[in-house]
Design goal:
By secondary structure, the protein is α/β, with parallel strands linked by helices. The protein has eleven helices and eight strands. The structure holds 2-phosphoglycolic acid (PGA). 2-phosphoglycolic acid binds next to strand 8.
Amino acid sequence: MRIKVIAGNWKMNNDLFESKDLISRLLNGLINTTANCEVVICPPFTSLSEASAMIKGSTIKLGAQNFHQEEIGAFTGEVSAKMLLSTGCEFVIIGHSERRTIFMETDELINKKILRAINNNLKPIFCVGELLEEREKNITEQVIQRQVLKGLENFSVGYLKNLIIAYEPVWAIGTGKTANPQQAEEVHHFIRKLIERHFSQEFAKSLRILYGGSVKPDNSKDLLAQKNIDGALVGGACLNADSFLNIIKSA
Ligand code: PGA
């Protein structure tokens, strides 16, 4: 049985005060709900420590949105995996399409980050997804295959037990256009089969694959009902406590 994960990627939103407010609302909303899914919030770096203190003892878990691939050193302005761990982070998003396109992150860099995260006991939420042009050219599967296999190159299966993959079609991120449940399920199924062929059947069965891209309370139920969709990575809709709570309820 794969336990669903609902993760909120706050992106560059919410200063410390706004973060505290949103977390209080989420905690209040979750008091009387027995969420039978894992709930993860990924606030900006500046809110991680405070978030960690606030969610202690609750069902909410903490993740970060990024970090630097090197362990330590002269990298002005960067944050290491160990630093994230010390704030109480359990998860980290790697390879988000905004990092790939705006910050030029390559598959090779993403591969290094996954390794660094795992070596520091952080659970990677590894994002893959095709651009609109790629979907229109019918090369979605090739793109996803390249991203997944390059990102996981040289890993043995035992190393990847805490990995989560998030399929996020780039054309659906922040656009209000969601992949319909069938379109999403097709790619999730493809990813699971790919993992089965390249790693093992057992690992493929246990691997959680989240969908992301304009997930909202009114579409989450249908998406999450698909056989190979094990949760959601939510952007815009996680910034509002009620809508994030409603997505959690739909899981
Ligand atoms: P969105 O973002 O829900 O606003 O489309 C999802 C994401 O970027 O992870």
